[in-house]
Amino acid sequence: MLFNSIAFGVFLPLVFLIYWSLSKANLKIQNALLILVSYIFYGWWDWRFLFLIFASSLADYLIGPRLEDETNPRRRKTLLALSLIVNLGILGFFKYFDFFIDSAADFISLFGFKPNVPSLRIILPVGISFYTFQTLSYTLDIYRRQIKSTRDPLAFFAFVSFFPQLVAGPIERAKDLLPQFTIPREFDQANARDGLRQMAWGFFKKMVIADNMAPHVQEIYGNPGNQDSLTLVLGTFFFAVQIYGDFSGYSDIAIGSARLFGFSLRRNFAYPYFSRDIAEFWRRWHISLSSWFRDYVFIPLGGNRCSMATQIRNIFITFTVSGLWHGANWTFVIWGALNGLYYLPVMLRGKQKSHTDLPAEGRLFPGFGEGISICTTFALTLLAWVFFRAESVTQAFSILGRIVTVAPSWHDKGIYLEPLALALVAGMVEWLQRGKQHGLDIQWQPLVVRWPVYVLLITTILVFGNFGSTEFIYFQF
Questions:
Q1: Which residues participate in catalysis according to the annotation?
Q2: Kind and range of the H or E run holding 355
Q3: How many CB atoms sit inside 10 A of residue 334's CB?
Q4: What 3-state class would DSSP assign to 445?
Q5: Which H or E run includes 404?
Q6: Which of 37, 46, 155, 365 is the 20 to 30 A CA-CA neighbour of 350?
Q7: pTM, 2 dp
Q8: What pLDDT shows up at residue 167?
């Protein structure tokens, strides 16, 4: 079920009313309702893949207590391996089977052979990468003795399938979200109101900003060979705005929806395009995934507690695997490796945490040096987005080549004024709100200011928004 659909517009208030009508009932009944509506939410897309969520949840629910109680190191490793095999096996089959088969065939063909290999053209289940990583964090943290297992199946199954963040995150850790299913929830009116504000801002970013960028991106990247350099740069800029508005918009809607039901989800975006170096960017972009790879890939590899050569290896492995997580295409692998390359100068100078404050804190505009750092980081991000958006590595390099070699043209650029204006407005609002949790975090303003803003925002969504016509970009990951 799409957040930006009429179906969700009916589904959410209906579930909200039933859920809070059960607030005085047994907690297990409330959790059972959440499992039911979450499975309906996911099954709305394709009910057949509900089995995958159920299988993943059941495997880790059964493994968790045994992993906690087991004291034999060898048996504990076997139990952890079983969890990894089940979860990564499902993910690998559905997401990467055809990719690795096709890549192997391409490699063999370099030596003059023409292998006849099977290609299943498997449908990728929506959100599989997200809920797989979420349930994996549970068994990994039990193995590390960082959390206790749960013996409550309803709480665990609700944790894995919780509908607001099931399809595209944030990727929650068991230590943070699972305990929230084991204690009674009380309705907090102030929290719910701000949840609605965050949802409204998320809908604006998705339906007005991202969806109005999408046609221009598709037109430009759909036929890059006939575009001049300026058009290709604009197309890449529009894609940067599109993917941010689309994905951070989803996160805002998910976090806001969860708050309506008394749950707190982790922040997933913190105005990343205002970052002053690539390390800060990855602390602000898709925070739940970045921290997941840090804790479960980078640190186990040795992190930065090793030689510089090993640190460089760890960085490249982490970023490359992160790229592969995004999709079964070499473009994503190169995108990840390129970000790893960007990260190296920051790491070599020991500046990974040099920008932990707000950009231009206490000022309306950044200073000259800070402004240059923000623009440079954004330019590097745009370069990497070319590989992320391109259909193939060949097309990505062709686009970059045309940007460098083909003269810019100002002819017929008037059609891009509207998306540029939308991007400017959204960027200005988020810059002014960069110290807040989201762009519509204005509860401290008087009523005479708040309500005109609400009316304007909702009217803009109704007039310019696309209802249910476009999926969220990260559904494919």
A1: 326
A2: none
A3: 20
A4: coil
A5: helix 393-405
A6: 365
A7: 0.92
A8: 87
